[in-house]
From TrEMBL:
Comp. bias regions, Acidic residues: 476-487
Protein location: Cell membrane
Segments forming domain Major facilitator superfamily (MFS) profile: 1-449
InterPro entries listed in its UniProt record: MFS, MFS_dom, MFS_trans_sf, Tet-R_TetA/multi-R_MdtG-like
Cross-referenced CDD domains: MFS_MMR_MDR_like (cd17321)
SUPFAM superfamilies: MFS general substrate transporter
Protein name: MFS transporter
Location, primary (coarse class): membrane
Comp. bias intervals (Low complexity): 462-472
Region feature Disordered, mapped onto this chain: 451-494
Pfam families: MFS_1
Domain of life, source organism: Bacteria
Its membrane topology: Multi-pass membrane protein
Length: 494
């Protein structure tokens, strides 16, 4: 949970400090995009690999390596001498975060029985909200205070004591776990997967700055056959030695496949919103970092409250409808935000933004925690690391795509009023993406497996094909066989 908290804080804390970084380092708009998108892309590209490495070499070990690397990369970000060094350090930070973050859900999935995971994911959702609260506030306060004359740099340096504490606590309390059968890392798959994502992300990030030359479209089109080649290779790899980078059989599990599609689309919406929102408040309205950070507090509190309630109280009763209600609630909040921004114009105040932000936060909270629960509910334990890596990777890939699309949907021709007008236009795109999220959610199971009635607990899940159900049964048998040996460590981990 500490790793997930650090990652989320690091993303949101940077958003609020972007204008200060831009002024201090003289960074271009393209460089600013790469400070955020570079992290998200490296994170997304490495998450699947990080999850699989945890399955192979041990989730605790990879967690500790990731935390150590993330802490070092944070120090490099804090002492960056120019935009190029900061972008490179952010990419390294994203790569090391990709080693630690997938282990969080993997350890939960492998340690806790199905009937307890809902509570844990509820806690995870609350931590997501807490991270969302802490990030903007810390970023605003640290930037405003200008500690020791360091300006924005403490937003990265604050990770150093947190990282050291995570290392010490993780080493003492996390129980080691890995896949029950030997797996090998699929290095060619890693290379092809990263290449495919770069073919999409690089032109999206640079296109607007370069006035969309023809090579941007050629490069994005080339990503399609590369993705197809990746899928074909992974299928052959699975048949040959059973150690693909991506366990494609997971996509035959309806809840997993549908949830991944929702994660990707939802990530795009969030990636667009959070960056343009920050630029709107600081470059459009001219607010200080502190005022912008405090303005976001109602949103973050609403996310935290709704995330905690959704898994434990609402989803067991209403199932998929809770997530769909969350998507529609976010759309309603965006509509209210656009109305207020146009009504009050440049004179809008923080308290006038509070209502639409609370509505949006409640909607987001209804989606984030139960979505993770739904995606992983039917995943065999032996593939926990791979599945967790895919879930996180797809969300971050969506976020990176959203950040890249900012240069497409948010193109102000100046500052002040121009930024404010571009912001309301970008919100229309966010609402459209969330409407797509709502539609895609119909493919999710009506209720996650662990929320079935007790009398149905032993029945096969109709949403899981026979091979996946058999794998799930085998994984549970493996878990039961090790239960006695692992009982005391598992209790200690909890």
């Amino acid at each position: 949970m500490t790793a997930a908290f650090m990652d989320l804080v690091d993303v949101t804390i940077v958003n609020i400090a972007i204008p200060a970084i831009q002024r201090d380092l003289g960074a271009t708009f393209g460089a600013i995009q790469w400070i955020t998108a570079g992290y998200a892309l490296a994170f997304a590209a490495g998450l699947i690999t990080g999850g699989r490495l945890g399955d192979i070499h041990g989730r605790k070990r990879l967690f500790l390596i990731g935390v150590g690397g993330f802490t070092l990369a944070s120090a490099l970000c804090g002492f960056a001498t120019g935009p190029d060094m900061l972008v490179a350090s952010r990419i390294l930070q994203g790569g090391t975060a990709a080693l630690m973050v997938p282990q969080v859900l993997s350890i939960v999935h492998a340690t806790f029985p199905a009937h307890e995971r809902g509570k844990v994911f509820g806690l995870f959702g609350a931590i997501v909200g807490l991270g969302a609260v802490s990030g903007p506030l810390l970023g605003a306060l640290l930037t405003q205070w200008d500690l020791f004359g360091l300006g924005w740099r403490p937003i990265f340096l604050i990770n150093l004591p947190v990282g050291v504490a995570a290392l010490l606590l993780g080493r003492a309390y996390i129980t080691e776990s890995r896949a029950p059968r030997a797996l090998r890392l699929d290095l060619p798959g890693v290379v092809v997967a990263i290449a495919a994502m770069l073919l999409v992300m690089y032109p999206l990030t640079r296109g607007a700055e370069l006035d969309w030359p023809a090579w941007c479209f050629v490069t994005m089109a080339a990503a399609v056959p590369v993705f197809a080649a990746f899928v074909a290779y992974e299928r052959r790899k699975a048949r040959r030695d059973g150690s693909p980078l991506v366990e494609l059989s997971l996509f035959r599990v309806k809840s997993f496949a549908a949830g991944v599609a929702v994660q990707l689309t939802f990530g795009i919406a969030l990636g667009i919103f959070f960056l343009v929102w920050t630029l709107y408040m600081q470059l459009g309205l001219g607010w200080s970092a502190l005022r912008a950070g405090l303005t976001g507090v109602p949103f973050s509190i609403a996310v935290s409250v709704a995330a905690g309630l959704s898994v434990q109280k609402l989803v067991p009763r209403f199932g998929r409808r809770v997530l769909q209600a969350g998507a529609l609630t976010m759309v309603a909040g965006i509509g209210l935000y656009v109305w207020e921004a146009e009504r009050y114009g440049m004179g809008i105040t923080s308290w006038q933004m509070a209502l639409p932000l609370v509505v949006m936060g409640l909607g987001m909270g209804l989606v984030v925690a139960p979505l993770t629960d739904a995606v992983l509910s039917d995943v065999p334990r032996e593939h926990a690391g791979s599945a967790s890596g895919i879930v996180n990777s797809v969300m971050q890939l969506g976020n990176a795509l959203g950040l890249g699309l900012v240069s497409v949907v948010f193109v102000p021709d100046g500052f002040g009023r121009a930024v404010a007008d571009a912001f309301t236009g970008a919100l229309g795109w966010v609402a459209a993406v969330l409407a797509v999220v709502f539609v895609v959610m119909f493919a999710l199971p009506a209720r996650p497996r662990q929320h079935a009635e007790d009398g149905d607990a032993d029945e096969p899940d109709a949403t899981v094909p026979a091979p996946a159900a058999a794998a799930h049964a085998d994984a549970d048998a493996d878990a039961d066989a090790d239960a006695d040996a692992d009982a005391e460590p598992a209790l200690a981990a909890r």
